[in-house]
Amino acid sequence: MSKQELVVLGQDATDACCPGLLTAPLAEDQAVELAKMFKALGDPVRLRLLSMIASRDGGEICVCDLTPAFDLSQPTISHHLKLLRQAGLIDCERRGTWVYYWLLPETTDRLAGLLTRPAARRTPETAGTSA
């Protein structure tokens, strides 16, 4: 058994950015926080909503433009948007009657960074092949 020290992500101030999963195991509090984001993305309606918001020219979209794309009631769409907001994936602002939504790229960048595998890192699948 190795005597190598186990470093846990989220336990050190130097983990400011968010190292990938291959760097070190996640701390419990960090896993809980990230699970909320992934859970929010685990629903097809929320994933489509996030995609519609993120891909919108100008960086924001009115709820009035989101609702017609679904065969769901407006309160159901609002509930899904609320869950995306609570997960920290989007933010919004009320302007008169309508609410406008936009992506929080720092959150999606954090998720992408967490799942990105360094190019030089060897995995069990590539360990037997030569580079």
Strands side by side in the biggest sheet:
1-3-2
Query: What structural class do you assign from the helix and strand content?
Result: alpha+beta
What is the terminal separation in angstroms?
29 Å
Low-confidence stretches: 1-16
Considering DSSP H and I runs of 4 or more, what fraction of the residues is helical? 40-55%
On the 0 to 100 scale, the average pLDDT is 83
In percent terms, what proportion of residues is strand?
5-15%
Q: How would you characterize the largest beta sheet?
A: 3 strands, antiparallel
Radius of gyration: 19 Å
Number of strands: 3
Helix run count: 5
Outline the structure in words:
- It is built from five helices and three strands.
- The protein has helices at 28-41, 44-54, 63-66, 74-86, 105-115, and strands at 60-62, 90-95, 98-103.
- The chain has a three-stranded antiparallel beta sheet.
- The longest helix is centred in the N-terminal third of the chain and has 14 residues, at 28-41.
- Mean pLDDT is 83; it is low at 1-16.
